[in-house]
Write a structure and sequence with these properties.
This protein is of the alpha/beta class. It has a single domain, classed as Alpha-Beta Barrel (TIM Barrel). The chain contains 11 helices and 12 strands. The protein has an 8-stranded parallel beta barrel, surrounded by 7 helices. A two-stranded antiparallel sheet has the order 6-7. Helix 3 links the parallel strand 4 and strand 5. Helix 3 runs parallel beside helix 4, helix 4 crosses helix 5 and helix 7 crosses helix 8. The structure holds zinc ion. The site of zinc ion has 5 residues, from loops.
């Protein structure tokens, strides 16, 4: 008991030393259409796909843990050729968003993931023409999806497709329709990574296994730091309110580099693979889960992230001040 109390104090000390507060954490929620019960994700123990009818219940847990920001990832029941169901007013994210606003008003800061890969047959983050992802023809679709999320009540739209010009295009569309206050979180540095695979297992299980979808033409390679700076600069110029870096832990140098160069708000995502590694090793008894969670998140904060999206958010909140 005494040892546990000392350990908890140490965790609090570490997180406090890097300036971590509850408000810096964002909890991701997968909302699944067409299901009645929570769907467990084998590769992510403790994380479930939440059916629309249980979203209120799930959000009460988040609020009770002291977390005030969430990001919604939609998992639709069906896909179509172009992913156009993503902008449907009755789509999974739009329905979840409307329900959250009705039940919780403005208690929560809600971010919605804007992409097409969960909604189309290809699993690519853009429209596919002649076996290639077509950047420019995707922009209009992305803008319409973002607008539909804003109309449903999203505070922040998180543009995760990595299409060039997405911030400019979405910003223009939001402004034209009177949603100047909706913020844009741009995935400026979404690196090509195997660490997204547990999430993909959850969201893409019907169409692929692990990383069989090649996204190398638009996601960033680890080998090119100059491209990273260009992408960030472009998104800032186009009007992003915050830039996103993912995966988190393998990008500490990148977060630090962006912070030094631009002094601009940065969000980092501690992605599903980072979560799964810690959970798996802890399940086998190879590591003590708690200090790993604490130091992982502390290191991402210390590198310069202003906000951290993590599946550990609710667990860590107990060590944090408001
Ligand atoms: Zn995508």
């Amino acid at each position: 008991m005494q040892t546990q109390l000392l350990a908890d104090l140490e965790y609090k000390k570490i997180l406090d030393a890097v300036g971590m507060r509850k408000k810096h954490l964002i909890f991701p929620i997968f909302v699944q259409e067409g299901q009645q019960e929570e769907g467990q994700i084998i590769t992510m123990p403790g994380i479930a796909k939440t059916p629309l009818k249980k979203i209120t219940q799930q959000i009460h847990k988040v609020i009770n843990a002291g977390i005030s920001s969430i990001v919604i990832f939609g998992i639709p029941e069906n896909r179509d050729m172009k992913g156009s169901i993503a902008l449907n007013k009755d789509g999974v994210v739009q329905k979840a968003m409307a329900q959250i606003r009705k039940e919780f008003g403005n208690m929560l800061n809600v971010i919605t993931d804007v992409c097409v890969c969960q909604y189309n047959f290809s699993g690519q983050c853009g429209l596919v023409n002649n076996n290639k992802v077509d950047n420019d023809s995707t922009l209009e679709l992305i803008s319409k999806i973002a607008l539909s999320h804003a109309e449903a009540g999203a505070d922040v739209v998180a543009l995760s497709s990595m299409m060039d010009g997405q911030v400019y295009s979405v910003k223009k569309s939001l402004k034209r329709h009177g949603f100047q206050k909706t913020k844009i979180l741009s995935h400026s540095v979404k690196q090509l990574s195997s660490l997204y695979s547990p999430f993909r297992t959850a969201a893409f299980s019907k169409i692929c296994q692990f990383n069989t979808i090649d996204k190398s033409s638009y996601q960033i390679a680890y080998t090119n730091p100059r491209q990273i700076l260009r992408e960030v600069q472009t998104d800032i110029n186009e009007g992003a309110d915050m830039v996103m870096v993912k995966p988190g832990l393998p990008s500490l140098d990148v977060i630090c580099m962006i912070k030094e160069k631009f002094a601009f708000p940065i969000a980092a995502q501690n992605v599903s693979g980072e979560y799964a590694m810690i959970k798996a090793a802890a399940t086998y008894g190879w590591i003590d889960e708690e200090p790993w969670k604490v130091t992982t998140i502390a290191s991402i904060k210390r590198a310069g992230a202003d906000r951290i999206i993590s599946y550990f958010s609710m667990d860590l909140s107990k060590y944090l001040e408001d």
